[in-house]
Design a protein that fits this description.
The complex is a heterodimer of chains A (about 325) and B (about 450). Chain A has about 325 residues and is an all-alpha fold. Helix content of chain A is about 70%, strand content about 0%. The longest helix of chain A is centred in the N-terminal third of the chain and has 32 residues. Chain B has two domains: about 160 residues, Periplasmic binding protein-like II (D-Maltodextrin-Binding Protein, domain 2), CATH 3.40.190; about 220 residues, D-Maltodextrin-Binding Protein, domain 2 (3-Layer(aba) Sandwich), CATH 3.40.190. Chain B contains 19 helices and 13 strands. In chain B, helix 10 packs across helix 18 and helix 18 packs antiparallel against helix 19. About 0% of the residues of chain B have low confidence. Classes of the chains: A mainly alpha (about 325), B alpha/beta (about 450). At the A-B interface, loops of A face helix 3 and helix 18 of B.
Chain lengths: ~325, ~450
């Protein structure tokens, strides 16, 4: 091929054009094509492990599939599974239990987490060390947490009952945190708060540190009290972060499974059986695939809808 | 400059290529050797008898040259793990020692291969095995000559007690004064409750002890496997013997209600604190640590308990599940060994079963901690003296009763777990309500299975 060389073309470029014709072919790929080249494997993976199973599950929710009786012919049952789920009194009770768990844990985690964030924000000596200590529970696996808190709550040898007995005079073996109907729900709330309040603390800390100092300085000039500064400056400006923490924790606790399963197995009876445990039992122990798919879809729509409403409210707060 | 950089990279690329080629060649060269060594994977629960089976399996490897690999899973995840594996037609297991209640599902869903032809060819006859184990572990449908497993591990619920405490003169005297009879292993549940109340909260050797340990586990099968030992003896039936799947009036009969109330009363009066979700291991811990006078557990654990330095030997005694006012039964445990239908090594797996069925292997199985179901072993004259719990084991295997073995057994079991635990541990409702709800739950399950007609 004869290269058409402009008399004024820089020598280097001419040299490149003559010596490396292959480079011109690669350079022929547009930026968009290269972008798609890199993004396609990820999209394919997401489609395979996220979207396809979701679509398949929606399909299964309209069938009579029960894997323990897979010899029975598969039937299309329309909305029967959804009707079954929505008319099952047990499911509503489990949703109620889950709602109580979510509200209790989120409220406590926000109070404790925000309180810790306010303390840590004071930047006292060795605050970094204490921040690390406070964050440790969050770094543990929920399964590990469930297991060792089961030992801690053991009425005869566990230190928890012993410490309670020390302060209240009650005999340590006279009560069981995980075995009594009145105490078991608070047990899972306590353990979840212990584990995740540091997470709320981190988010709130980011919010507190984003508040400019000059606002507080101006408030001090105006002789605003500490309480006034907290109520009029700190809380409103940290509110978007607080709301974000509430959203994340609420979504997580709605799906909570591993820690509760290990701590109480949903007991005593079904006192602490969250809807995620019911779903797991229906899907992987009773093998009611159609029914459990319908339940999963209903839960997904519930969380998705609630989260959407909440995010709209969050955006309004941010705009303020 | 550019030439030396290119040259350096060429050297690195060449070296990497050579290394890769070397590794690839070695792998290919090694292939024939790897393909020749045969292997079988046997799946079971992780417990003492499994360790004994590993020991036993070494003999099979010596004889056949087939290496045995094992996949053992704790009991709490055993059903989850392996039913998942079987449902998804996995190839992990060549042989599986599946729970007795899985047999219906395994047969109907073609998880196991049918063994009739194999048994006929190898002259393995089910008449050589304890009838209760053939019915419980191998047959589906029940009471028909269709075999899906070889009885592998005979088991039932039994009881251990602190023989040394029972033998103390001061304890004996006090018991006799209070109850007007000698302190001895109970023959009835009323006697058991008296003894449990007697020991509850008593100080022995400076330590507070408790009366009894019973199953209360919520997650898998624990409380069901415990409560049935009482229910059966109070007259509970799964259905009308004359009309299958008719449960009304049999599951929730007045006698069954009394049985369930008794189990709750025993749990409330006479167990250690914190035992709200306790199954096999918690019972072993409670007994070994000297917490309880009597323990309900599976015979499978008794060899290990007898050998325990703290509570074994002369300190431990054994007794059969006590009788109730309407019968004398005990809950069947145990499993059969089956060949998984998706296995690529079915011939080798069948070879293992043939080897395992031999009387000499079954005898060794019993000696090292397994529980043989072969008549030649358990009916041998020396068997009752072969272990201190052997007579109780023999007596128990003659009075066993099992839970449903339907394909839908998991749903039936979990429904019972929920209702019984709600009533016994969580104090929800009455015994009558719990059993009525159970009938409702089970009716729904059988309806889904297409057995509605006979269930009302």
């Amino acid at each position: 091929m004869t290269a058409i060389i402009h008399p004024d073309a820089p020598v280097d470029r001419i040299g490149a054009q003559v010596r490396f014709p292959a480079v011109r072919r690669v350079r022929g790929l547009s930026d968009r094509s290269i972008t798609w080249l890199f993004v396609t494997p990820t999209i394919a993976l997401l489609l395979a492990i996220n979207i396809f199973p979701l679509i398949w599950m929606i399909r299964l929710s309209f069938t009579s599939l029960n894997l323990s009786m897979s010899y029975l012919p598969l039937r299309f049952v329309g909305l029967d599974n959804y009707a079954d789920v929505l008319s099952d009194e047990d499911v509503w009770i489990r949703l109620q239990t889950t709602a109580q768990f979510v509200i209790s844990t989120v409220v406590l985690e926000v109070i404790v987490g925000f309180g810790l964030a306010l303390l840590i924000n004071r930047q006292f000596r060795s605050h970094s060390f204490w921040t690390t200590i406070i964050l440790l529970p969050m770094m543990l696996s929920p399964a590990v947490v469930g297991n060792f808190w089961t030992l801690l709550f053991q009425p005869q040898i566990g230190p928890f009952n012993y410490v309670v007995g020390l302060f209240t005079g009650v005999a340590p073996s006279s009560f069981s945190m995980t075995g009594e109907v009145a105490l078991a729900p608070w047990t899972i709330v306590l353990v979840d708060t212990w584990m995740w309040a540091p997470y709320v603390m981190l988010i709130c800390l980011a919010g507190l540190r984003s508040i400019p100092d000059y606002i507080y300085e101006a408030a001090e000039v105006d002789r605003a009290s500490s309480w006034r500064q907290f109520w009029s400056i700190t809380l409103p400006m940290a509110m978007p972060f607080l709301m974000l923490a509430v959203l994340f924790r609420a979504i997580e606790n709605f799906k909570m499974f591993d820690m509760v399963n290990l701590l109480t197995s949903g007991g005593p009876g079904s006192t602490t059986e969250l809807v995620s445990i019911t779903l797991k039992r229906a899907a992987f122990e009773k093998w009611r695939t159609g029914y459990s798919s319908a339940l999963a879809i209903i839960l997904f729509v519930t969380v998705f809808g609630a989260a959407n409403i909440y995010v709209k409210a969050l955006n309004r707060v941010k705009q303020r | 400059m550019r030439k030396s950089v290119t040259g350096k990279w060429s050297k690195w690329a060449g070296g990497a290529l050579a290394l890769f080629a070397g590794v690839a060649l070695t792998a290919v060269a090694g292939q024939p050797a790897a393909a020749q060594s045969k292997q079988l994977t046997l799946c079971w629960a992780a417990w003492d008898p499994a360790n004994a089976l590993v020991e036993l399996g070494k003999d099979f490897t010596k004889e056949s040259g087939i290496e045995m690999k094992y996949e053992f899973v704790p009991w709490t995840s055993y059903a989850d793990r392996f039913l998942n594996e079987l449902n998804s037609h996995g190839k992990l297991c060549d042989l599986i020692i599946g729970d007795s209640q899985w047999i219906g599902g395994a047969a109907e869903n073609h998880w196991y291969i049918k063994l009739n032809d194999f048994f006929a060819k190898e002259h393995i006859t089910m008449d050589d095995f304890v009838p209760a184990t053939v019915l419980g572990y191998s047959e589906w449908p029940k009471n028909t000559p269709n075999y899906w497993a070889l009885p592998a591990m005979a088991d039932a619920v039994g009881w251990t007690y602190r023989k040394d405490w029972f033998a103390r003169p001061e304890i004996q005297a006090e018991f006799k004064k209070k109850y007007g009879r000698d302190l001895a292993p109970p023959k009835t549940y009323d006697e058991l409750k008296d003894i449990a109340e007697f020991f509850e909260g008593r100080e022995i050797d400076g330590k507070k002890v408790y009366g009894a340990y019973i199953f209360t586990e919520r997650g898998s099968e624990g409380i069901t496997m415990g409560v049935t030992n009482v229910l059966y003896n109070y007259g509970f039936e799964y259905d009308n013997p004359k009309k299958p799947y008719q449960m009304q009036g049999f599951v929730n009969s007045p006698d069954a209600v009394k049985g369930l109330e008794f189990y709750k009363a025993l749990y409330k009066c006479c167990t250690a604190p914190g035992m709200t979700n306790a199954y096999m291991q918690e019972g072993l811990d409670a007994f070994k640590s000297g917490q309880v006078a009597m323990q309900m557990n599976w015979f499978a654990f008794f060899p290990g308990l007898y050998k325990d330095p703290n509570v074994g030997g002369d300190k431990i005694g054994f007794f059969v599940n006590p009788a109730g006012p309407k019968g004398h039964f005990t809950q069947l445990g145990g499993q059969g060994i089956s060949v998984v239908a998706t296995s690529d090594h079915q011939d080798d797996a069948l070879r293992y079963i043939k080897w395992f069925a031999q009387p000499k292997v079954q005898q060794k199985w019993w000696e090292i901690g397994g529980y043989s179901a072969l008549k030649a072993v358990v009916d041998a004259p020396g068997f009752p003296k072969s272990a201190p719990f052997a007579p109780q084991f023999l007596e128990s295997m003659a009075i066993v009763k099992d839970f449903w073995a339907e394909p839908s057994y998991a749903q039936l079991l979990l429904d019972m777990q929920k209702r019984v635990h709600d009533y016994v541990v969580a104090d929800k409702g009455t015994a009558q309500q719990a059993l009525d709800l159970m009938v409702k739950d089970w009716t729904k399950v059988f309806k889904e299975q297409g057995k509605a007609a006979a269930s009302e």
